[in-house]
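SAMPLE LOG
Freezer: B-3
Tube label: C17
Construct: single chain, 143 aa
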Amino acid sequence: MTDEQIEQLIWNELRTRKITLYDMIGGDYIDPDPDDKTKSSNQRYRCNRFKETFNEHRMKELICVEEYNPYNDMPPLKLSLQDLFRFWWNNCIVKELVVEEILGDIFEYFADQMKPMKESDEMDLTLDFEQVSLPVKDRKQAA
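STRUCTURE (predicted):
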C-alpha cells in the first residue's frame, strides 16, 4: 500500500467508527462537545469509542482485521509491517533523531561484543573425583 492508501484507510476507519478527537486523546469517558452549554457536562459524557487506553493499543484496535480482542497482543492487521514502518518513517518521525538512536544502539552492540567475558558470580559446580577420598564399603558388609 502507498502512504496515501494507508492514510485513507485510517481516515475511513475513524469516520466509520465516528471517532472524534476527544476519543483519540481522552480517557474512558469523554465529553464529546465541551462547548455545548445547553446540557450539563454529566449529560454530555459518554464512553470512549476505543476500548483501550494507550495509543499503540488504540491503533491496533483501529486497524485490526477481525473484531478487536484486548488479550491478543498481535492481532492480524489490515496493513503489513513493511507498509506501517514506511508510513511511520515517512510521516511520523524526525529522521535525524531516529538515525542517531540507531547508530548509538549499533555502537553499544559492538562495544559490548568487544568486552572480555565476565567471570560468572555463580557457584563452581565442577568436581575432581581424583582428589575426593570416598569411603569404600566392603561389599559383604553392605549385603
